[in-house]
Amino acid sequence: MPFRTALRTWFAISWQTFGGPAGQIAVMQRALVEDKRWIGQQRFNHALSYCMVLPGPEAQQLAIYTGWLLNGTRGGLAAGTLFVLPGVLALLALSALYVAFGGTAAVTGLFAGLAPAVVAVVAQAVWRVGRRSLTHPALVSLAVLSFIALALFALPFPLVIAAAGLAGWLLARYRPHAFHRSVGHDADRGPAPLISDASLHAEAPGGRRFVRILGTGLLLWGIPLVAVALLTGTGSVFTTQGVFFSGTALVTFGGAYAVLAYVAQQAVTTYGWLAPGEMVRGLGLAETTPGPLIMVVQFVAFLGAYRDPGGLDPWAAAVLGALLTTWVTFVPCFLFIFLGAPYIERLRGNRSISAGLTGITAAVVGVIANLGLYFALHTLFADVDAGTWGPLHIQFPDLTTIRPTALAITAAALLMIFKLRWSVLRTLGICAALGLATVTVTALA
């Protein structure tokens, strides 16, 4: 495959990656498997299965994997970078606009519509992932237990994910029928794909290659973080954000939705980088830009660094925090693919590899549901208190502070997504217009 041709294709794909991982994967499926005939369907599915096991945004990792299949390491670097670059630039600009004009009536109105729409979008994510993943009562139970562990007992997110992986392994060992899935045959028609399902990638795994890539990746990942710590101090907001988001990059199983409740809890409660409602607004912005939804962490870092610049100009601090967070979030994605892909290519057809994924993916349904509960409470009610009752940690909304406008727009968004089956981008645009109209009418009244 000519590298320039691949670059043009990845550039075109990068501007179509709206609608979350499902939409992003569909774009690559259509472009690479159906239109270009560059890769076979089963080969594409195998790469996707591996990316689903990894922490991080599976769609971007799938781009890296397929780019690597087509053009080696430089192909993976180009595909993964182009996949996130438009979103990085767009969300950086939107974050700056939010800081500069977030208090104006127009921006307030837009977010008054976006936040309720996000509640509906997360509800759709629960439905989509659950319908695909919960194929056995045991997996449904695992999803429910994960939701309870997070929503009622406030157990740490990494612990829930680790327990889910262990549960998946046990299910595969003692209840293998819970993992049964109908597997379709390769339905490729027309010319044979450039990379067929039976072909073997030329780059073989090896110890020397593994050490070289691991060392290079860790250096690239860690050097900016070490430099920031030396220049601004270990207690600066930049070092704190770099360390925190480096950690979340290692536990982001199931995509952005799965880890955002944990990020929101830490960013709002522990570090005070932003308010609960602002987390919902950030996700709304990330939904309207191309690229992975985990890009919302850039918005979180931008606001946190702007409000605690540590002696720097607030705008310079905000950009530094946002870019550092983006770097430590996405560099591991390249590392995981370049390290593991050659081994995974030699293990195609090994069913045991996906055992842990089944348990984690089932738990992700509960994790996303917990995120939806968090967003719904802080969107629909002006006052939400957290309380404890024995081992339980419960959030109690003040029913007298319900927001009727937010409730109405949420209902409208649910109708658009589930009944009318409108796209996420269209739903967000209409809800933003509804919020702007509501604020305008209120101001004129």
TrEMBL record:
MF-aspect GO terms: chromate transmembrane transporter activity
The record's subcellular locations are:
Cell membrane
Q: Which GO terms describe its cellular component?
A: plasma membrane
Indicate the transmembrane segments per the record: 77-100, 107-127, 139-172, 218-238, 244-264, 285-306, 318-344, 356-381, 401-418, 425-444
Q: How does it sit in the membrane?
A: Multi-pass membrane protein
Q: Which InterPro entries match?
A: Chr_Tranpt_l_chain (IPR014047), Chromate_transpt (IPR003370)
Q: Which UniProt keywords apply?
A: Cell membrane, Membrane, Transmembrane, Transmembrane helix
Indicate the principal place this protein occupies in or around the cell: membrane
Any Pfam family the entry gives = Chromate_transp
The family annotation for this protein states: Belongs to the chromate ion transporter (CHR) (TC 2.A.51) family.
Full protein name = Chromate efflux transporter
